[in-house]
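Here is the promised in-class demo. Please do not try to memorize the tokens; focus on the logic of going from shape to residues.
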């Protein structure tokens, strides 16, 4: 599974490096930064807990679970291929506040907040690394030997970590791997065709996660454009789609996606070569088994400050690159992402207590259900909310009505606000919980009110 998934990262990074080289040649600029690329983390959790785990538990066959995961990954890639051609059109019609705001919420709440928890699990390592990073990248302090700020921060934190371990203090939580390197080439295979009957119940997961990453890809292309590097959304999206298909065909079980963080990488001095280096390290390292040696050497608290910096840069860009009057729309997009973050952390805490969310009752159960409904489909929800509020702020009430109507339809099939723990979609005539009809009806009422406002405006 790992080499095939990493192959998708390698192919995508090679393509994004080429796009950066081509843009450099076309523009004559030497400060072009490539788009970051990797595996999609939300899909990782969805595949583990929504596909691979359930198939393994139901059948007891790990190879069958792997084949189903491959097939679902290929289905996600196929859906993304079809959606990719609408990317440039979407960038033209959706306001920048909605596009950038929807990833800003992810940036500050998922990319920055969760790593901050890792820093405070080991503050001696994490806080020192964070301060070094902020001094170098935001404070303009020159690091020794002209070292890049991100590298200096990681080295500082890592040095403290291993020095403390050598002196008898806390060290790595797990023993370092001792097994030798082993070649595992990700060869193409049609083994997933054997699992087509078992795949059918899980195809409902494919479309929403394909849609989420396509929207994220459009958002990230807009973010790169706001930072000065104008890429074509169709090229960015087709690359992630084809890389996902290649990963699935070669045994991978996680889709690929452009990463949030282009402006932050640009601020750190990255250009076109870092994606090439990333792709080679991940692709070759996974095929050789070397990643198992490299990753444990870097303490999480020492690397987490880079993610915090990325979150800060993306969030700042969403406000600075959007019209001032749209600031409230950017802020509104944070709410669904906040629900997703609370869900992630709460599920972890509940599981640590030996319980499941199904054990919650009364007010706690109702709160969990509200978090689930608000958090599922959070990227698309944030986009629709931000766009609708921009329309209201610009007195375009008819557009707001259309967006609320679209949100109602999306709710009826679970593309947003799915009450299912997996976030899966469903048929509009068979909602899994009464809350679906309530939320869809509320959006419908909001659409009607907005239509009345538009009619009154015309009069």
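The designed amino acids, position by position:
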């Amino acid at each position: 599974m790992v080499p095939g998934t990493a192959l998708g990262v390698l192919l995508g990074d090679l393509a994004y490096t080429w796009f950066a080289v081509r843009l450099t040649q076309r523009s004559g600029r030497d400060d072009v930064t490539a788009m970051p690329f990797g595996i999609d983390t939300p899909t990782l959790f969805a595949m583990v807990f929504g596909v691979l785990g359930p198939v393994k538990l139901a059948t007891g066959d790990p190879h069958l679970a792997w084949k189903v995961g491959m097939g679902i990954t290929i289905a996600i890639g196929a859906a993304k291929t079809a959606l990719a051609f609408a990317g440039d059109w979407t960038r033209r019609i959706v306001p920048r506040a909605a596009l950038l705001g929807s990833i800003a919420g992810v940036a500050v709440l998922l990319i920055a907040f969760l790593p901050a928890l890792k820093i405070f699990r080991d503050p001696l390592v994490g806080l020192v690394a964070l301060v070094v990073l902020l001094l170098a990248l935001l404070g303009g302090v020159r690091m020794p030997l002209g070292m890049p700020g991100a590298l200096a921060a990681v080295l500082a934190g890592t040095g403290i970590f291993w020095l403390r371990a050598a002196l008898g203090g806390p060290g790595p939580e797990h023993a370092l791997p001792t097994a030798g390197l082993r070649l595992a080439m990700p060869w193409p295979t049609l083994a997933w065709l054997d699992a087509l009957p078992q795949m059918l119940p899980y195809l409902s997961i494919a479309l929403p996660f394909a849609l989420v990453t396509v929207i994220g890809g459009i958002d990230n292309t807009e973010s790169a454009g706001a930072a000065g590097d104008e890429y074509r959304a169709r090229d960015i999206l087709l690359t992630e789609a084809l890389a996902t298909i290649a990963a699935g065909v070669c045994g991978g079980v996680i889709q690929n996606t452009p990463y949030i963080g282009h402006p932050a990488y640009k601020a750190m001095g990255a250009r076109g070569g870092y994606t090439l280096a990333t792709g080679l390290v991940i692709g070759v390292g996974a095929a050789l088994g070397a990643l198992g040696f490299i990753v444990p050497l870097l303490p999480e608290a020492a690397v987490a400050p880079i993610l915090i910096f990325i979150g800060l840069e993306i969030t700042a860009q969403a406000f600075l690159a959007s019209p001032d009057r749209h600031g409230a729309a950017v802020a509104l997009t944070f709410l669904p992402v906040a629900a997703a973050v609370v869900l992630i952390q709460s599920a972890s805490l509940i599981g640590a207590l030996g319980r499941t969310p199904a054990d919650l009752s009364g007010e706690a159960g109702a709160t969990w259900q509200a978090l689930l409904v608000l958090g599922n489909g959070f990227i698309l929800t944030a986009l629709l909310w931000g766009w609708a509020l921009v329309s209201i702020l610009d007195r375009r009430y008819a557009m707001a009505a259309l967006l609320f109507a679209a949100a109602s339809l999306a709710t009826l099939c679970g593309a947003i606000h799915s009450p299912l723990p997996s976030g899966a979609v469903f048929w509009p005539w068979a909602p899994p919980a009464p809350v679906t009809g309530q939320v869809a009806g509320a959006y419908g009422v909001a659409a009607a009110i907005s239509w009345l406002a538009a009619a009154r405006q015309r009069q």
